[in-house]
Amino acid sequence: MSTIQDVFVIGTGQTAVGEHWGISLRHLAWKAVKQALESSGLERPDAIFVGNILAPRISQQHNLGTLLADFCGFRGVEAITVEASGASGGAAVRQAMLALRSGEIGTALVVGVEKMTDKVGPEVTAALAAGADSDWELVQGVTAPAMAALIMRRYMHDYGVHRDEFSDFALNAHYNAQANVDAMFRNGLDLKQYVQAGIVASPVNIFDGAPDADGAAALVLSSEPGELRPGLSVRVASSSLVTHTLALHDRRDVLSFEAARLSAERAFQQAGITPDQIDLAELYDRFSIYAVLSLEACGFARRGEGWRLARNSGVGRNGQLPISTFGGLTARGNPGGATGVYQMVEVTRQLAGMAQDNQVAGAKWGLAQCLGSSGATAVTHILDGTNRN
Known about the structure:
- The protein is an alpha/beta fold.
- Helix content is 33%, strand content 19%.
- Strand 10 (365-372) and strand 11 form a beta hairpin.
- Helix 4 crosses helix 13 (339-351).
- It is globular, with a radius of gyration of 19 Å.
């Protein structure tokens, strides 16, 4: 059996998540790319992989790979756009990993970018909803919050969980976001505010869902180690992308994120570690119920008990399993197709000891998992920060 080529993160960059009305898609991406290139010392990547969902519909821009290669000064470099709904950023990282592991390229620039504020109102909602099955779900007027509400209601019914018992996920995310200068919402949140929040799609309230926003994040990946800080490099120990049924009604069990489970299992197997060795995880908490089911799918909690892990700060920075350490999608904001790249940047900075006020003490292993289309696509990466020179 051939040896799998090691891949290292040698540079990171990101913009603040928010409403960037006054900047174009390409300029927003360049801000993150410039940071990543400067931190890596790389002048020109061998290939560029871009994660994005909405540009063709919201920004009237196809072929972002070529657009960014041109704008960033890399004409002639191989570049491609990757779309997998909310998992687009993670899928772009996955494609870069495959190219690097093959030996075909030595360095890759991965960019996640989204401009949701180029349009406002129902047009954005409709574009995001297109990640559902068009013939069987979208035609019925389904939206992403409605899908999450159906799943959450079933979970509450089957396991006897009260809506307010999901509150700890939002409270944890907003607490962590206060220290993240790039977060969209840096305000704290208390239980009273959560309980009294308006309902979006019963039982999902406004704090159970993530705010959609603009943002860009970038990674430089290399087959050769590079120090993110003196004496320490971060290795991508595993990479896995798995799909399941797109339509919710085709799933045998709507309370089991099968793609997330299989993706995590394969990632753990590749990395040669078990869930109890993970020091922090960035999960796809676009909705509170997604965080719950992701914890269960990844093996961090037993079925029907994912919500319990968040009790008593179990998912806080000093808890059993820190999640959403920079605010997650819930408070950092949901930058669409850039989400998976933000997650990788955040885990990398944690393992490199570069998370500042958001630092998880002693973190050596981190997991990043993003989902698309209500869990129909799952991409999991495990990062190793034990590479100390």
